[in-house]
Specification:
Order of helices and strands: EHEHHEHHEHEEEHHEHEEEEEH
Number of domains: 2
Oligomer: single chain
Helix content: 25-40%
CATH architecture of the largest domain: 3-Layer(aba) Sandwich
CATH superfamily of the largest domain: HUPs
CATH class of the largest domain: Alpha Beta
Strand order of the largest sheet: 8-9-12-11-10-13
Radius of gyration: 22 Å
Strand content: 25-35%
CATH topology of the largest domain: Rossmann fold
Largest sheet: 6 strands, antiparallel, barrel
Number of strands: 13
Distance between the termini: 51 Å
């Protein structure tokens, strides 16, 4: 027997993890398949899709880690998105015969998101599969506000630099991966050498200075202070992510290597300093806060 969960699962946050948990509790012996898509549907339905929280490969890894048996990723096409709700379910059953669907109360599917959990139940009664609705997962943020675990909420929090609150909804720190490239070497001249990360494929938080955890391809780990922005003190207009790893051997060569940077906490805004000396003093205070 097969149970499925359907969705974008962007970020694989606590709400997604709850779907997996409910599915496993309901049918422990079933194969559990996460049905998802190779791109966000908004890439075809809107002028601009939201920034992804996870790459497709990382999303699949996380889904498997949290208990899914396998991931079925469907190519996004206009034909698929234009299927009426019942036709969409029929299409899925041709791809993957299933006996149970587990979804949240806000689940929508089919053309123009016309289908909901009530219509899914009606389709299931005719097609002989059961529909289980998992309860919403609410998360308390640091300011006491209670919010539902949603990918859109994680994006909003990142947009406002609230990475510690995003961590509460994700169940882990939001992380990005990039390859270390050569920079202007200003950090080294200031006594705080940095690794400059090239382009990343997922959402970055707003500009600012952050406490981060860093891991390289050899699974070596460091605490770090990350600078994300245009570095206005030096008149730059290029947005960069630069990370200073604390207590790293200064002879360590990271050029060309992949680094994973997990945003643990907000430290301060990205601002222009009146002098290099003032900047250096502030970087020292930033690093002290990271290690506090």
């Amino acid at each position: 027997m097969t149970t499925i969960i359907i969705g974008n699962f962007d970020g694989v946050h606590l709400g997604h993890q709850a779907l997996i948990r409910v599915a496993r509790e309901n049918e422990p012996s079933d194969e559990l398949v996460a049905v998802t898509f190779d791109a966000h549907p908004a890439t075809l339905t809107r002028s601009q899709a939201p920034a992804r929280l996870t790459t497709n490969s990382e999303r699949a890894r996380l889904l498997l880690t949290y208990g899914v048996s396998r991931v079925l990723s469907l190519p996004i096409t206009a034909a698929l998105l234009n299927l009426e709700p019942e036709a969409f379910i029929e299409f899925l059953r041709e791809q993957l015969p299933f006996s149970t669907v587990v979804e949240g109360a806000d689940f929508r599917f089919g053309r123009d998101r016309m289908g909901d959990v009530q219509s899914l139940r009606r389709i299931g009664e005719r097609a002989s599969f059961q529909t289980i609705v998992a309860p919403d997962i609410d998360v308390a943020l640091h300011d006491g506000q209670l919010v539902s675990a949603r990918s859109s909420m994680v994006r909003w929090l990142l947009l406002h630099g609230r990475v510690a609150d995003a961590k509460r909804i994700l169940g882990r720190a939001h992380a990005v991966v990039g390859v270390v490239t050569h920079g202007a070497r200003r950090g080294r001249e200031l006594g705080f050498p940095t690794a400059n990360l090239g382009s990343v494929d997922v959402a970055l938080p707003m500009d600012g200075i952050y406490a981060v955890d860093v891991e390289d391809a050899q699974s070596r780990r460091w605490r770090g202070a990350a600078s994300l922005g245009t570095n206005p003190t030096f008149g730059s207009d290029t947005r960069r992510l630069e990370v200073h790893m604390l207590h790293m051997d200064p002879q360590t060569d990271l050029y060309g290597q992949s680094l994973t940077v997990a945003f643990d906490g907000w430290l301060r805004d990205m601002i222009r300093f009146e002098s290099i000396d003032v900047l250096v003093q502030q970087i020292g205070r930033d690093c002290a806060r990271v290690m506090a």
